[in-house]
Amino acid sequence: MSWFDTVRTGVEAVRLHRLRSGLTVLGILIGIAAVILTVGLGEGAQADVRSQINALGSNLLIIQPGSTTGTNGVRGGFGSASTLTATDAAALTSKTVAPDIAAVAPTTSSSATLTTSSTNWSTSVVGTTAPWLHVRARKMQSGRFLSDAEVTNAAPVTVLGSSTAAELFPTGNALGQTVTVNGVDLQVIGVLAPSGSTGNTNDDDQAIVPIAVSGQQLFGGTTRSSVSTIYVEAASPSTLSAAYQEAQAELLALHNVSSTNADFTITTQASILSAATSVDHTLTILLAGIAAISLLVGGIGVMNIMLVSVTERVREIGLRKALGARPRVIRRQFLVEASVLGFAGGILGVIVGIAGAQILPHFVSSSVALSPTASIGAIVIAIVIGVAFGVYPAARAARLAPIDALRTE
Amino acid sequence: MNDVTPVIELVDIAKTYRAGALAVHALQDVNLVIRQGDLVAISGPSGSGKSTLMNILGCLDVPTSGTYRLAGEDVSHLDEDRLAEIRNRNIGFVFQQFNLLPAVSALRNVELPLAYSHVSRGERRERAIAALQQVGLGDRVDHKPAELSGGQQQRVAIARALVTEPALILADEPTGNLDSTSSREIIAMLIGLHSQGRTVVLITHDSDVARAAERVVEIRDGRVQELAGTP
Question: Of A63, A120, A208, B69, most Cβ neighbours within 10 A?
C-alpha cells in the first residue's frame, strides 16, 4: 500500500470518530501549547532582562559602597556612612591610574519634594556630573544636560525625567521654568527622553542636579562628600574587565584595605545578567518540565485511543489481512494514524500557543518570545509522540491472526 | 485436462488444535483436488471441520501436517508475509458477513486488494469499475455499503473478489445473511463466474445451495467424502 493510501486511510479513520479523535488531539494540543508558551515566556523574560540591563548603559561598571562577606555579614554602611566619596570618583578619572576607564559619573540620590508655583511632586533627586548622560546611555528629549561648568560651579539648575516633567508641568514646556527643592530655586535646563526600559519606571521619574548642589545646598549633613553609586564606563566591551581591575586596585589602595575586606562592591552588567538569567533559566526549566509532563499525558491519551481503535477494528484488520495486507503494512497504517493525531495536536497546539502568546502579556508583566524553530520543533515532537505511543497498539494490530480477527463478531 | 496443474491439491492434510492436554483433530487425512474451472461445494454440519478447511484453503491458516499446493505452489509452510501475498494474488474471498469497509464507497472497497499489490491508482480505478460493472453495480460505484441492499453489498464483495483475477474464488456461506431472492441472485452470479471458466469453491451448510454445484464434497468429523456430481 502506497504512502498516499496509508495516510489517506489514516486521516479517514481519525475523521470517522470525530469526538474521540478530537479529545485525543486536545491532550496533545494542551501539551504543545504549554511547551511553546513556557519556552516563549522564558525567552521573553531573558530578553526583558537583557534590554533592561542594556538600558543601564553600555560597558558599565557599577561601584556601590559596602560588600557582602562570606559569613553573610555586610561590611560598611550603605548610605548612612557611605564609604565612597567624590574623591574616589575623581581618582578613577585619572588616565594614568585607569587608562581603560572612559568616563566616571558619581551619583548621590535623595528623596525630596519638588515644588512649582502650581503643584508639587515627590521624587528622587540625583546629584551627578556631566558624563552621567553618556555613561547611563540616556538621551535628551529637550534642552540640554548639565555642563562641566555647571557641575564645577554648583549652578542651581536641574534636568528632569520625562515623567517628572509631565507631573510638574502638565500643560506645557518645562524648559526655563523654576522648581523649588528644600527652599532652593532650580532652573529646568532639560528633560530626559524616556529610558525605554520596561522594568524600572524610576528611570523616568527623577530630577538630576549638579552633584555639589545636591551635597551642599539641598541636603548637606554628613553625606556632604559621600556618593551612593559611582558609574564607570569602560572604553570598550573588551576592556571592561581591565577597567574592573583598575577601579578595584585604585579603590582598595585609596581605602587602604585588601580585597578580602573591601568596603565596596563592583558589579558588571555581565554579573547582573547572569544572575538574572540564571533565575529565569531555573524557572523556565521547571515550567518546561511541567509542560513535558502534560505532553506525556497527551501521548498516553494517544496510546489509549489507539488501543481502543485496534480492539474495535479487529474485523477490519482481519479483512485487510485476508485481502493481502502484510503485518508490516497494518503496523504502518496504525502508526500513521497515531502520527496523524499527533500532527493535528501539534499544529493546533502551535496555533493556540501563538494565540496565548498574544494574550498572555496582557495578564502578566512579561513578554513572550516565539521562535519559528520552537514552533516547528513542537510539531515534530508531537508527531514523534504520536508514533512513539502508537508503536505498541500498532504492533498488536499487526500480530492479530486473520482468522481470529475475521471470526470476531 | 488431467495434465493441467490443479488449482488446489490437498495431500494428507491434518489440522490439530491443542487445548492443554486435549488434542482436537479438526481435519484428518484430507485429500482433495480441484481443477481449473471447477465449481465445488464443500458442505457439512457446523463443527464438522468445514471452517478449518476453508481457512486452510484460503491460506488464512496453515495445516499441522500434509501438503497444500495452490496453483502448483506449495503453501503449507509459508510465513505470514508470503501467505499475505498469496492471498492477495490467488484468492478472492466472499464472506457471509460481506466484510465491506463501512466508511468508504463501493469503488474504494473493490480497489482495496489492488492497493495492497501496489497497482497504480488509475489502473486500480479502471479495474474496480470494470469489476463492479461485471456484477451489475456500474451505477452504484460511489455508494457506501450502508446505502446498498444486502444482495448489492454481497455483489460488491464478489466484485472485490474478482478484481485481482484470482486463481480461486472462495465463498464462505455467501448467502447466509441474505433473503431467498438475493440468495438466488448471488448463487446465479457464482454459477455465471464458473461458466466463464473461473474456479469457485463454495462453502455452505445449505443443501439447496450445494445442489447448484457440479461437485459436492461433504465433510463429517474432519474427513472428506466426495459425493457424486449434480444429482
Answer: A208
